[in-house]
User: Fold TMM79 protein from Polioptila caerulea.
Amino acid sequence: LCPCLIYGAYIFLPFDAPLLPTVSARLVYTLRCAAFATFPIVLGMIVSGISRLCYSALEPFGELHREVEIHRTYVSQSVHLFILYFFNMAVLATYLPQELLKLIPLLTGLFAISRLIFWVSYTIGRSFRAFGFSMTFLPLLAMLLWNLYGMFILEPENLLS
Assistant:
C-alpha cells in the first residue's frame, strides 16, 4: 500500500520541490519537512500528559492505567522511529536527483499519517497495530536500503568524504 500511496501522491499532487543545488540546501529542506513529522509526537505527548493527569489524580504513585501506558508507549516508539526516519531522510536527500526531491515531503506526510493510524489502531487493541507500524517501518526500511545502495554502489568513492 505504501508504494501505491507514494506513487499516486507523486503523480497527482501539483507541487514540485524547489531548486536545491547544494547539499546544505537539501538538508535544510529536509529539516523543514521533518518538522511536520513531529506533529503526531507532540500530539501524543499532550494526550499522554492529559491522561496521566486525569488517571493519576486519585493515586499519583500507583500503577499506571492501560490508557496512560498506551499513550506513553506510543510517544516513546514514535520518538525512536522519528530519529531513524530523520537520519535516513537526511542521507536520502543528499543522494536523490533534483526531480525526485518531491519525495521528501511525501515521505514526511506518510510518516505522520502512519503514526496517527498506528496510534488509533493501538488504542483499539494491540492486535490491530500491525498495519500502522508497517506503514511506518517499511518505508523506513526502503529508505535505509536505498541509502546503503547509494553509499556503497552509486558513490563508493565519496563514502568517507
User: Anything to note?
Assistant: Residues 66-95 form the longest helix (30 residues).
